[in-house]
């Protein structure tokens, strides 16, 4: 019975973590908001034990921080944080794209191409669909690179850039479609150098687009 209860608590903690992570990434829990543990637990319908576990994980990942009064708050992603994260992505993602070129499966490439076509064909695509495609492409490249350290770095750095963009509504309605088409074309051609260059251009354009708003 104890093992079953432990397993249930672990599952609840994982579910709670994923729910809170999505709320932070989507800016439902905005930067600077004070975390009210009891209220969050009641809203998500979980006990305080899995809630504390989930909050501890998010704090360990730097997405929750302590303010001057030692209260747990959602981290505010500054422009400096954003640019530093993009710099890390520029160091890692072009290489990940090159390494993924011979490894990404045809089925995964077809899935990504279908997602991109769906966005292109929709005059007013759901923003959630755009973010799902962006996640699938960038994280998929990290996974296909065969380097787990690269994959984890991409996940972590993209969390910061995603929070910044979504909280400030900087993403365009159909952002970077041409860039994404170029990246997918390079992957489909198994051209590692073209994939590297396409990813570099894409991230540089993202940086310039954000800087132009300041």
UniProtKB/TrEMBL annotation:
This is DNA-binding transcriptional regulator, GntR family. Keywords: DNA-binding, Transcription, Transcription regulation. Coiled coil: none annotated. SUPFAM superfamilies: GntR ligand-binding domain-like, Winged helix' DNA-binding domain. InterPro entries: GntR_C (IPR011711), TF_FadR/GntR_C (IPR008920), Tscrpt_reg_HTH_GntR (IPR000524), WH-like_DNA-bd_sf (IPR036388), WH_DNA-bd_sf (IPR036390). SMART domains: FCD, HTH_GNTR. It holds the Pfam family FCD. GO terms for molecular function: DNA binding; DNA-binding transcription factor activity. Residues 10-77 form the HTH gntR-type domain.
């Amino acid at each position: 019975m104890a093992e079953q209860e432990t397993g249930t608590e672990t599952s609840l903690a994982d579910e709670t973590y994923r729910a809170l992570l999505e709320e932070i990434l989507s800016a439902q829990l905005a930067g600077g908001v004070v975390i009210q543990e009891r209220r969050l637990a009641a809203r998500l319908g979980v006990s305080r034990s899995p809630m504390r576990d989930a909050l501890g994980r998010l704090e360990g990942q730097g997405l929750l921080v302590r303010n001057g009064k030692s209260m747990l708050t959602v981290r505010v992603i500054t422009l400096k944080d954003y640019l530093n994260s993009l710099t890390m992505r520029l160091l890692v993602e072009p290489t990940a794209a090159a390494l993924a070129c011979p490894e990404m499966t045809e089925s995964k490439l077809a899935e990504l191409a279908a997602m991109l076509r769906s966005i292109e064909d929709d005059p007013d695509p759901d923003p959630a669909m755009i973010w799902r495609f962006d996640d699938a492409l960038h994280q998929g490249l990290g996974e296909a690179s065969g380097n787990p350290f690269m994959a984890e770095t991409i996940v972590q750095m993209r969390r910061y850039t995603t929070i910044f963009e979504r909280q400030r509504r900087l993403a365009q309605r159909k952002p970077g479609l041409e860039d994404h088409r170029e990246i997918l074309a390079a992957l489909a051609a198994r051209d590692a150098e073209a994939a590297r260059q396409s990813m570099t251009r894409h991230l540089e354009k993202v940086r310039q687009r954000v800087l132009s708003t300041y």
